[in-house]
Fold this protein.
Amino acid sequence: MAECVAVVTINWNAADMTRRCLESLRTTEGASWHLYIVDNASDDGSLDRLARDTQGASDVTLIRSTVDGGWTGGNNLGIARALADGCNAIFILNNDAFVRSDTLVQLLAVLRSQEGRTPVLGPVHMSAGSESYDFRIAHLEEKTGIPVWTRREDWGPETQRPTWPTAYVSGAGLFVDRAHLDAVGLFDDRFFLNFDDTDWCARAEAAGFPLLMVRDAVIDHVGSASIGGFKSPLQTYFLTRNRLLYAEKHRPVLDRLRLARRQWWRARELGRGHALRMLLPQRDPVAHAFRRGVLDYIMRRFGDCPPSVRAAQRQAASGSGS
């Protein structure tokens, strides 16, 4: 019998997007799969709609979380259930990412064909609705050692090969084996959202597992669909706080000092030339999110963001930010 891939995705107030993700999986050829949908305490009726749509479906397990555990908590629930069900190959897939008919078979073939330690794999990301790449490879930033996406103009010839090393694999499409999870564990819940995948990949690499991108495995990715885009207050908060937490866990002191200096200059920019203004309440929603991200890291407040950041997100969405 062909090995079944457990696909884990999170729904949070986005039933239509999750249904599109499921529809893309149902185009799969050459690989068996089962989808675990973790509903992260949606409050828009998503859970009821998904329950109706998947009632009686043999290819879906719907898991209800009574709390919004973020990307980390939701995926940890789904992974634990898949492992308990006896699954060995697990594909963590954002609900705004859509597989192609051969994505799973390509990933599974590479996972089971590598010699030596089993690699952690990632598909390449195409921007949904276009032929441009969203994510293909990552490298370590020179001054801070933080993994960052590599710009297209900096891609080397290795990205034309069937597989190539990367500094991390994006959690929008992360293909792992039970052996990885047994050795590394689940995602660190302190991150909640952003840098959780980067942290896990750093731990996997430290445990001796290679990180590889797979050229012929492709997903079409919307990107940040549930949190308002890459420059939203939510993104700003979690990227700011969690970048500091990642550096604390994985980078030497000198790199962390360089990152702190960079954050200081970012504070000057948002404080209109005076970094210390960021210590004061901010009307600008992005500036407020940045300030809270730094302060919450210093105060060791991790997990979900404070209500004021959610309020800043609503303010930005309404167009009332200054």
Notes: Residues 233-318 form one domain.
